[in-house]
Design a protein that fits this description.
The chain has about 150 residues and is of the alpha/beta class. About 30% of the residues lie in helices and about 20% in strands.
Amino acid sequence: MSQMKLVTPPEAQAALEADERTVYLDVRTVQEFAAGHAAGAINLPVMTRDPSGMMMPNRDFIAIAEKVLDKTQPVLCGCMSGGRSQAAAKMLLDHGFDDVTNILGGWGGGGDPRTGQRVSGWLASGLPTSTDVDDETSYEALRRKAGL
């Protein structure tokens, strides 16, 4: 099984620029994604809200990932601060994805478990952002592509 890699947001941006096959997989909720995300990211929430508003695991996460991503392409997982994306990255690795990286600090900033230091998020790092949600990037589009 492959090892999860960790990168900062600027390192993630460099990886996106270096290899056009690399995908930024934003695992935050649909609402968080719509409010702002890394330019070019696609949205596949690892957690969703139940009717009462409580967060619960997205039971379709792996099924959709396996249909819309190539297991050999580099995948950068990002969330708000790095926790949900770490869980998502581990799930992808456990299901045979080869090249999965967790973005430390995510969108809003968070801690680096290796050093305990704070890592600036994508937004505070001044990296390219978007609020576009379309037929290529939205969770609903990915669900349709996966046949769900």
